[in-house]
Amino acid sequence: MIAVDWGTTHLRLYRMGADGTLSERRRSDQGTLATGGRFGAILAAEMAGWDDSHVLLCGMAGARGGWHEMPYLDCPAGLPDLARHMQRIHPPGFEHRELWFVPGLRDTSETVPDVMRGEETQLAALLDVLPGGVHQVCLPGTHSKWVTIRDGRVQRIRTAMTGELYALLRKHSILGALMSHDDSRFDAYAFEAGLRRSAEPGGLLHHLFGVRTAGLSGQFAEAALPSYLSGLLVGHELHECGLAADRPRPAQVHLIGSERLLGVYARALTTLEIGVQRHPEDLAARGLHLLWTRRMQAAGQRAPAPPA
Amino acid sequence: MIAVDWGTTHLRLYRMGADGTLSERRRSDQGTLATGGRFGAILAAEMAGWDDSHVLLCGMAGARGGWHEMPYLDCPAGLPDLARHMQRIHPPGFEHRELWFVPGLRDTSETVPDVMRGEETQLAALLDVLPGGVHQVCLPGTHSKWVTIRDGRVQRIRTAMTGELYALLRKHSILGALMSHDDSRFDAYAFEAGLRRSAEPGGLLHHLFGVRTAGLSGQFAEAALPSYLSGLLVGHELHECGLAADRPRPAQVHLIGSERLLGVYARALTTLEIGVQRHPEDLAARGLHLLWTRRMQAAGQRAPAPPA
């Protein structure tokens, strides 16, 4: 089978055996925003030479304005629910393959709904191995996802616009103007000062102005200010979105994402004396394979034999 | 005398009699960011035809990188303190005038300092007329100022980056992409929904993502989303920066600023059952005149006679 994780800025393909062995991977920057609507042609080109008959897709390609709008599945939802609500599509040019889409998830427990598309396949892989009980998962990024899992089902989703706000403030705000352009140097002292500041009264809008005065008053050097801002934002995300809502605090948080981001979040959680367990970003491949297996089993279909 | 309020994006001049009567006003968009360092030439041109010998300046022209860096005066500070710490400058070309700068104010009661430059002259006018006791003042804007006055002195300053963040999110974020470009239509229902949302758990970073889902799920139309975002941001500013820190809640807040912004903040405060008293933006002229009078009195100098 071929597992496809198609987000707004990336397209990742995994070729997997029936037993879940990953044999090949491909990656391109033709995210849904860069397709110009040519979803079928791009996917066909990316799969060239892979003749597997089953293709399972997740991510923003299934959003409104994407290739095929998949309705959201409401929480709580587990592996069997996700597998059952997959939809087969029949685009021209793919007559010799079976293309399936995984639904996104929606949490309607607040006055405004929260949603995810794509991350549910990473969670699917986790759901398969986690014991019963309550688990807290964080998928940091442009839009960080905080997920509560209870007894094998995704129960709560909370998204924080942390990564996007960091980028906006760096590029376009009066704060960015104070900082050096180089983001690569991580300053642990400034990051932790930002974390501490986030726990003080005053709120994020006030603390953000403080980044300016901290810079102007010489509390932090230009080169350290991006780390201070990062600590401030991650701290607010943790206190208000990730941890506060689920008292008592979890002893451990599962982190899924890129190594660099996980390092930042692990540091913040460790500072709060919360343990972390890291999982790689390509958990999506395993999740997609699991969902496909479930679906095939439920349909009484036998998974095709692994290539000879 | 001539009172000059020189901020980053505006330059306002007021010609006033010794008794404080405003006889003429001029306004230009040559804020300090647009001067290219030609402060003296620009001011001389703007004052053309006004032969008054005393000129009193406030605002970002007194900031680092401005015309003349004025040190901050630490809170608590009242009218006499501001008057005493004014500084005379002697730039070339102004030999026949006396030019004075008003210092900005700094509050060091938090781990990160908070500051203002320019607003202290609007506050000076208010300090002159307010009775003793505690008063809460809000100057909404790109960087909203919340000020606690106690017995005639500015005691606390809290700045919230509300206006700048609104503009950033409208122009550059994934939220702005969902909204109509027209900001002029105020939607009271959406604004108040945003206000209510700001009081719910989850924090600003989470609530911001909710603007997207509220739009995508059809809770609010494109044209109403800017008002929803505005309500959300103003609500967070009020709860976390303006009101929460000064329990018990004030029965009334003094608002200083443009009519349009004051309308928005008055609506938000009224929703929280807090009274408002509005003051016009050009309070700065009266404040500058007051400071000048105090300074002249303290120096034993007589104010020049009003023009015949």
TrEMBL record, chains A, B:
UniProt KW keywords: Kinase, Transferase
GO biological process: D-galactonate catabolic process
InterPro entries per the UniProt record, alphabetical: DGOK, DGOK_C, DGOK_N
Single annotated GO MF: 2-dehydro-3-deoxygalactonokinase activity
Record-given protein name: 2-dehydro-3-deoxygalactonokinase
Organism: Luteimonas viscosa
